[in-house]
Specification:
Largest interface: A-C, 50 and 44 residues
Strand order of the largest sheet of chain B: 1-2
CATH class of the largest domain in chain A: Alpha Beta
Chains: A alpha/beta, B mainly alpha, C mainly alpha
Number of helices of chain B: 11
Shape of chain B: globular
Distance between the termini of chain A: 83 Å
CATH topology of chain B: ABC transporter involved in vitamin B12 uptake, BtuC
Structural class of chain A: alpha/beta
Radius of gyration of chain A: 24 Å
Order of helices and strands of chain A: HHEHEHEHEEHEHEHEHEHHHEHHHEEEE
Number of helices of chain A: 15
Number of domains of chain B: 1
Structural class of chain B: mainly alpha
Number of domains of chain A: 2
CATH architecture of chain B: Orthogonal Bundle
Order of helices and strands of chain B: HHHHEEHHHHHHH
Oligomer: heterotrimer
Strand content of chain B: under 5%
Distance between the termini of chain B: 38 Å
CATH class of chain B: Mainly Alpha
Radius of gyration of chain B: 19 Å
Chain lengths: ~400, ~290, ~290
């Protein structure tokens, strides 16, 4: 009995403390906050946050993309920063899940007091961070989240990477209309991006009259032999290799070759976004279809990014379709701050005015729903190179 | 009908891979009686050592492989020397050892990721795509064939070692009863150290072969370990023959399961099989 | 300040998880590594019912408790037939299966896409949307759970649990139906975990299967181990430590590219060191 009432005393005690703190905070809310941002606004470094998966399986993308961002920051700072002020980026680990994404966002917003965060990379990170961004008037700019759930989710969210909805539609139309395929099977990685592509493709393809089916696999799977064998037994017209990363796709290509199964292929733009992978697997990818919003090897900024990264890190930058958008995101943020100042609310409004901004990823236009406006274009792989389909 | 041959081959490959894991796992379990989570990361150590020596230093492939195997064995040996034997001396319970091995696993995996990045790598051993042999309408690569052959040889070799050498008899004595073994004069800690070395080296072989077949990633250890542990239990934990049988059984159930059931449920099937075995035949197929 | 409130809420959620797991592991001696499964069930019920049917958070919470109770009854019954090491592996298997269902039953759970936009609790005009208000609610719930747990462990029911931990066979001989006790505490703990899950879903407003994998169960177990078995205050301490430690490490100046891996390594190292030098945890009365 005694122990129970003691516990309740503790609970009440804590609640009282919490309540008092709340009162104190609401009373003090106006002055100190504005003082702080005012003094910082003058001449200190401009602080920007980044949320990316730095550990776990997704670190395979998070690590190099962090390096891309760091590269852009270094370039900006070496050129004198912005109005003499240097950019200071703080990187937090979102671990490709909601809880850690939210944690990271909380820390960046409340401890580092940033007004802009480039992140999340995984859609789960972004979805969890968005409410925090909105509540604190901090802009959340994703260079990689493609879940359709993020379209129009908040006036403080924008992304220069397009939603998954577009890719599947384009390919479904080519597959049914041009190629006259009626049965397409998928080997699909169980993550939000590949799942989004599958859903977009199959809903469009089936609407046109076709048939789809799929085998899913969890991230990190290395043995696809039995799944491929099973899909082969269904005698499909084409196989869609729908993966999050080129590495997973390569594992599948290898086993496809080993099983000696020749079948027309479609791939996700994770593959076409990596020219080294495309070239290395030229034989098996001959004639394969994809839909990309495009890495344009003739884009000067894109070429510069590739060279600079290679020079600094001695390897080619992987996941190029994301690398270009990440790189652009940093520069877009700089231009935004240049235009309207380091203010979350103003930047959010400014973000919706971005139109035909020239970057490594081509012309960037942001729609009123925060999504990048662009068409996915059908592509085909010939002789180890990605070309526009239908030329 | 021609698909069945391919499924059989796939099952054999999987079974052989698991066998390489269970050999080491069961060996260590038999001597120390705890579920060693650290075992999984040793495969990654083997694979990465070969990767490091061939790619970064440029040493000849075969030499690198030997270094890789010894390296994996060494890491396992050291883990025992500094962590597990200390705990054994303190008469720590199995639970404590399990958790310690888990902690060690997490640390080593993080170290590998820091040194080699989290990217997926492949160990290249020849220029082009692997030679593929065809059996009927099914196909198998020479690496995959090598996995099966290695598994058979390793099993055979290990069995011979344990049956016909003094070392083997000492290991059996320790497995039966560590206290008694000590009393009759066996230096149990030394023998267990060797057991760790051998078991870990075999795990290293597994990692290297997997590296050739599909590739390496710092996180590859956990999946390998769980499959290996499941196969061990099905076969009778601590029992080498059981581990081999369990491995192939698991390989067949998983791959034929995929044929009929949507493959995303493969893991769930594996664990359901595990639970069923745990309930109805916890001692596994073969009694220890 | 707002950051501390955020951490405090996470602390409360994990404290509930730690306390409830401690009832099963610390007091009763059942090494369950599947707590994340019930955590997930609670979270998903609130999320799905909230999104599909607009059901109030508190209704969802109660339903989560009921569902977790039923499922834990069924699996608890199955698992009770297993002893020692096999029990651990059985729970791991069950956790994996639940995660697999969350991931694959996409019509209901949306699989890897997760469920976004979960709303904060509202009751009779009281709105718990602000973080501070949410913290209020969470602390009250934690208090209730703590008091309830305290009353269990100090009662005669609790004494039987401890007796089961010490020597199940002996207490059986005395005529106690140990199955009833083990099952009951397992269900109570599962229900509490589900409550934590409901809080979690409503706080983060987005859930996906990735949060409820086996590793999460290991993390919750680490809280119990660190704090000490069979000590409820210890579990509070354990949760405090394991929530705040990674945050504190953020401020240690590791270079960016390895910082995150370094945190993992430290976490693993902590487990190893604890096992080597203080297996009873900070406040534990029961040595592992």
């Amino acid at each position: 009995m005694e122990k129970q009432s003691k516990t309740w005393l503790w609970v009440i005690g804590i609640l009282v403390v919490v309540g008092v703190v709340y009162l104190v905070m609401t009373l003090n809310s106006s002055t100190p906050a504005t003082n702080e941002s005012a003094s910082k606004g003058e001449n200190g470094p401009i602080k920007i946050g980044v949320i990316a998966p730095l550990t776990g399986d997704a670190a395979a993308y998070g690590e190099p993309l962090q390096k891309v961002i760091a590269l852009a920051v270094e370039e900006i700072n070496n050129a004198g920063g912005l109005g003499g002020r240097m950019f200071q980026f703080t990187y937090e680990d979102g671990k490709c899940n909601g809880k850690d994404g939210a944690n990271a966002m909380q820390k960046l917003v409340n401890i580092d007091k940033v007004k802009v965060v480039i992140g999340g990379f995984c859609s789960s990170e972004s979805l969890a961070a968005v409410p925090i961004a909105t509540a604190n008037k901090v802009v959340l700019f994703s260079g990689g989240s493609s879940s359709p759930d993020l379209t129009n989710v908040s006036s403080y969210f924008l992304r220069d990477y397009p939603s998954d909805a577009a890719q599947g539609k384009v390919l479904a139309e080519i597959a049914y209309g041009d190629k006259k395929w009626r049965k397409v099977v998928f080997i699909q990685e169980q993550l939000d991006y590949p799942l989004g592509i599958f859903k977009a493709f199959s809903s469009n393809f089936e609407r046109l009259g076709g048939q789809t089916s799929k085998e899913e696999f969890t991230e990190g799977t290395t043995d696809f032999r039995s799944q491929l064998t099973k899909l082969r037994g269904l005698k499909p017209d084409a196989l869609f290799i729908d993966t999050q990363t080129p590495a997973a796709a390569e594992r599948i290509f290898k086993q496809l070759t080993e099983l000696k199964w020749k079948v027309p292929l479609l791939v996700s733009d994770a593959v076409t976004g990596d020219p080294a992978v495309v070239e290395k697997n030229a034989t098996i990818l001959e004639g394969a279809l994809a839909a990309e919003f495009g890495t344009d090897p003739n884009n000067a900024t894109f070429k510069h990014l590739l060279e600079a990264y290679k020079q600094k890190h001695n390897v080619d930058v992987p996941y190029q379709s994301y690398a270009q958008t990440m790189y652009d995101a940093v520069y877009i943020v700089r231009d935004g701050i240049k235009a309207v100042g380091y203010d979350g609310e103003k930047l959010a409004l400014w973000s919706r005015t971005i139109k035909d901004w020239k970057g490594a990823s081509g012309l960037v236009t942001i729609g009123s729903d925060g999504d990048r406006v662009s068409g996915h274009i059908g592509k085909v792989i010939k002789k180890g190179k990605v070309e526009v389909y239908g030329m | 009908m021609d698909l069945i041959m391919q499924f059989i081959i796939n099952s054999l490959i999987a079974g052989a891979t698991y066998t390489l894991v269970t050999l080491g796992f069961n060996l260590v379990y038999g001597a120390t009686k705890f579920v060693n989570m650290f075992h999984g990361v040793l495969a990654a150590v083997g694979g990465y050592t070969v990767f490091f020596f061939t790619q970064t230093i440029g040493i000849d492939l075969w030499v690198s492989i030997i270094v890789g195997i010894i390296g994996a064995g060494l890491v396992g040996f050291l883990a025992d020397r500094f962590i597990f034997s200390t705990l054994r001396i303190k008469k720590a319970s199995n639970l404590v050892m399990f958790i310690a091995s888990l902690g060690a696993f997490i640390v080593l995996q993080a170290v590998l990721a820091m040194v080699f990045t989290s990217q997926f790598q492949s160990i290249v051993h020849s220029v082009d795509s692997p030679r593929v042999y065809e059996i009927g309408s099914a196909a198998i690569t020479h690496i995959q064939l090598l996995i099966i052959i290695t598994a058979l040889f390793s099993s055979f070799g290990l069995v011979l070692l344990l049956r016909f050498t003094m070392f083997g008899k000492a290991v059996k004595a320790i497995s039966d009863d560590e206290e008694v073994a000590k009393i009759i004069g066996i230096d149990t800690n030394k023998i267990i150290g060797y057991v760790f070395f051998i078991g870990s080296a075999i795990a290293g072989i597994a990692g290297i072969l997997i590296g050739f077949d599909t590739g390496i990633q710092p996180t590859m250890g956990l999946a390998i370990l769980l499959e290996g542990a499941t196969a061990s239990i099905i076969g009778g934990i601590g029992n080498l023959y059981g581990g081999i049988a369990g491995s192939f059984l698991l390989g067949f159930v998983e791959n034929f399961g995929i044929w009929k059931i949507p493959s995303e449920w493969k893991g769930a099937i594996t664990f359901s099989v595990l639970i069923i075995f745990l309930i109805f035949r916890p001692q596994g197929i073969f009694k220890k | 300040m707002a950051y501390l409130i955020h951490l405090a809420i996470l602390f409360v959620i994990y404290a509930i998880l730690g306390i409830s797991l401690n009832l099963v592991v610390g007091y009763t001696g059942l090494l369950s590594v599947t707590h994340a499964a019930f955590f997930g069930i609670g979270a998903y019920i609130v999320a799905i019912l909230g999104m599909q049917f607009g059901l109030n958070f508190f209704v969802g919470l109660l339903l989560g408790v009921v569902v977790a109770g039923i499922i834990s009854f069924l699996i608890g019954f199955v698992l009770s037939r297993l002893g020692g090491d096999y029990y651990v592996l059985g729970t791991v298997g069950f956790n994996y299966i639940v995660w697999s269902v969350l991931l694959n039953w996409q019509e209901v759970t949306r699989g890897p896409l997760g469920i976004p936009g979960i709303s904060r609790p509202k009751l009779f005009g009281l709105d718990f949307t602000s973080n501070l208000a949410f913290l209020f609610l969470a602390v009250i719930i934690l208090g209730a759970i703590y008091v309830f747990s305290q009353s269990i462990v100090t009662s005669s029911f609790g004494r039987v649990l401890k007796a089961i931990r010490e020597d199940e066979r002996a207490i059986n001989v005395f005529g106690y139906n140990t199955l009833y006790y083990k099952l009951t505490i397992f269900m109570i703990a599962a229900a509490m975990a589900a409550i934590a899950g409901s809080l979690f879903a409503s706080y983060i407003t987005f859930i996906s299967p990735a949060t409820f994998m086996v590793m999460e169960s290991v993390f919750i177990l680490a809280i119990v181990i660190l704090g000490g078995f069979a000590n409820l205050k210890g579990s509070l301490l354990g949760a405090l430590f394991l929530i705040f430690l990674p945050e504190a490490l953020r401020f240690v100046g590791f270079t960016e590219d390895i910082a995150a891996q370094m945190r993992q390594a430290v976490y693993g190292l902590l487990l190893v060191v604890l096992m080597l030098y203080r297996p009873q945890g900070l406040l534990g009365e029961y040595k592992l």
